[in-house]
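Today's session is about reading a structure prediction critically. Students often jump straight to the picture, but the first step is always the sequence itself: look for stretches that repeat, for charged clusters, for runs of hydrophobic residues. Only then move on to the predicted structure, which in these notes is written as discrete structure tokens rather than atom positions. Here is the chain we will use throughout the hour.
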Amino acid sequence: MSLANPVSVEGAIPAAQQKRKAGWLRQFMFALRSLGRDLRAGELRVLALALLVAVASVTAVGFFTDRIGRAVERQAGDVLAADLMASSGFKLPPELLSNIEQRDLQTAQYVRFPSVVINEREESQLVAIKAVSGNYPLRGTLRLAEMNTPETSFNAEAGSPAPGTVWVDSQLRSALELSVGDTLTLGASQFAVDKIILFEPDRGENAFEFAPRVMISLDDLEAAGLLGEGSRATYTLLMAGETAAVDTARDFLETEYTSEVRVQGVRDGSPQMKRALDRAQRFLGLASVVTVLLAGAAIALAVRHFALKQADASAVMRTLGATRAEVIVWLSTRLALIALVASVIGITLGWFAQLVLANLLQGWFGLALPAPGFMAPLIGTLTAFIALAGFGLLPIIQAGRVNVMRVLQRDYSSMDASAMTTALFGFVATFIVVFLLSRDLLLSVIVVLGVVVMLAIFGLFGRVMIKGVRSLAGPRFRLSTAGLQRRAASSTVQLAAFAMGIMALLLISIVRIDLLSAWEQDLPEDAPNVFIVNIQPDQVEGLAAQLESQGIQSTGIHPMIRARLVAHNGEPVLSDDSSDQDERRARREYNLSYSNSVPAGNQIVSGEWWATDGSAPPLLSVEQEWAEERGYAIGDTLTFKSAGVETSATIANWREVDWESFQVNFFAVSSPAMLEGLPSTYITSFHIDGDFAATTTGWVRQFPGIATLDVGAIITRIKSLMDRASLAVEYVFLFTLLAGFCVLLAAVQSSRGERIRESALLRALGASHQQLREAVIAEFAILGAIAGLLASLFATLIAWSLSQFVFELPFQLNAWLWIIGIFGGAFGIATAGYLATRRVLYTPPIVALRHAN
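Below is the predicted structure for this chain, in token form.
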């Protein structure tokens, strides 16, 4: 064999590669030129708009939730004042501290407990003491101000007060009228007031610590003699460092001291914030899912129309020698380019849209939002290409493979036979998008199936209603209903899309307006709107007299004892084989009370109440759901531990408690024989009609240590947050309506040839332009009215279900929402439909009759 042959073959390989490369480049340039012509002719504008809406919706929500999530993560360390904390109601074991100190971590400690301070005028005040080590905090900023400077002028410091000095917050300074040079007595020691605490990074970790803050050095704690046996103190170790070292320390603590300390890290911080973020993200993500699905319907219609229009060109190319693969690549490249352009514009619009969304909800989360990351635009772009592939790839493949003879015969039946397959591909694409957004397999299945079922129900009901309207329509609307009947498939798709969007907006409005109003109306007019906690035993009579002198009728002043459940029928509730849920319950402290009479607003549902003359033995009355959830029965014995003392009682009855009544309620109420004599504070609630601040002025000085809570202000805050949240969801659902409009445009575009021929024939038969215009407007108005009717019906049914089974509130039918849904849908869709078909109506008959498709 000649040696020249291998050389010639090796030279031929690069030449073949260059030829293929040049061929692909020519195909790409040809597709680019074709795309320009398509856009100028309007063939792909609807497809581009549908893709743009889907990308903008997904990107806007993605940008927003990413910013909120990273802000929460950024501030979580500040909320803990560390990267990791370990806390216990007992002193931390020396071996634990020694092990942590040997690791590559920064550490700090503090002890937190309630106590009483006395000023130089012998005035006392209940306070929350925090004894800190020298390098507190490890994360976040402790802001302090001098006693004689405005609170707007502060220093950010880390450390503890100097020995013999205290830092106090402005609440205590105001209550005791402290000034420079004053001293406070704490236990056996006296301390000079040094600085004002303006901000404490981890104060929010214990959100219900109402007493004023006093901070001392950890070194002064023992000399002051503030802690004795049974003292209610929390001992905390703070840790900060590299992620690997923190994770190792966490594993050690959770393995070796799982029953002795509570470990909390950045991932566990601010659970309320994370729950709020999770709910907002799911609601907003649902709006994006619905938008993508409706945009997918528009994409499917637009791509099918595009494929039909390109079938002729594909046949010509194949007769000129192009292969099926080359034709499919040519068509797919044009769609990929339009998806890329739509993604860039959609990402830009999503960025500006999330700015509005962030302004709506930033006050809710109270965070300075960082710049968003790259995941939102990446997922937005993937959404465009996945939706395009799922809803449009099959028609393109069929357009490239359609038989040349069928094209010449104008037979496209082979392309129509794949509607169900295309829909299946689209649902798979939607599932992939939902999973990308949620990262939750079960949630993705539930959401996609739920939306698909709802769209199917809308389509089924809509088809039946279209037939009904057709049979009932008089001569005036016969032409309009005939158009709906002839284009039943596209009309049903449009109807389902608009009904879904309108229903979402109506449902949010019902929840925000009607159910919230029902909740407010469900409360009695004289429902308590003020709570007072931390009432000391020696203040009960004086406070009762104060309330009576101001004409305020309270629900009673009730004793409250903090205790931990330690045993059930003599068996410890915490054991080696306890589940995580049992461990959390065992470490929880409950608020207990005792009484000779049934608490107001409570109802005995099983068992009997004890004697009211105070002669009853230790007995318990427990809340029904609380007992059932834990498997406690009447006759069982529960043991609680409070201030180091264990006390037991037998369950005598179950109570039904209305927790939303704003009365003072407890999970467990005992006979006096069980809890009387244990350290306790008192709590009360009442209703006031006047201004909260004016009514309670001077109470804190008269009764040091009490904390007054304005529940009315809390209700107002909740309503404001609900309004903001629902407004944000409505804002995102506007993308859904826009996606529905894309479905309408795509349907009109796909039926454009048919509408042109109909218009020409009717004009040739004597119909005026005004008659045609009225027929088109009536056609879309009927479609919109049916969509609005279905949306109103299903929104009302879902709202009724929510009110009965979730919120447990009375439901009132709101006729205005039906009026808005039906007439708003008719007007909006009629307007949009007329604008979309306006060019068809103005097409001259001679041009229309020459129209090929």
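Discussion point for the tutorial: The two ends are 63 Å apart (CA to CA).
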